[in-house]
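INFO  loader      accepted 1 record
INFO  loader      residues=131
INFO  predictor   begin
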Amino acid sequence: MTMSADLHRKIAGLRILVVEDERLIALDVQDILEGWGCIAVGPVATVAAAISSIEKDCPDVAILDVQLSGETSEPIAEAFRARGRPFLVLTAYQQQHLTGALGNAPLFRKPVDEKSLRQGLTSVLSNVARS
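INFO  predictor   done
INFO  writer      dumping tokens
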């Protein structure tokens, strides 16, 4: 699926942290992002690795899975929110099951759908631009 030249200019070069503990899903998201000209940071599969990446690189945007091998990605969402950076959630959970910093985040369902992911990324970036 192709994207408009305007959208491509907006997202090309963005550094996007991919936080996902299911390797195949993580690689799929990474491939999609790189196909759009983005720089996929990670993927990482733990809260500690994600926090370290945020502290070192401070990526522009994050795509977060909710459950990471028994941990929740809520501390990652809080770290992004504290830095004024947008994130979206890619999970099998329903919105009503998300709490805290994840509770009102844009939610996208697994398995990853390229069109939905593109729309979600565009939406969170538009919301930041309006802030």
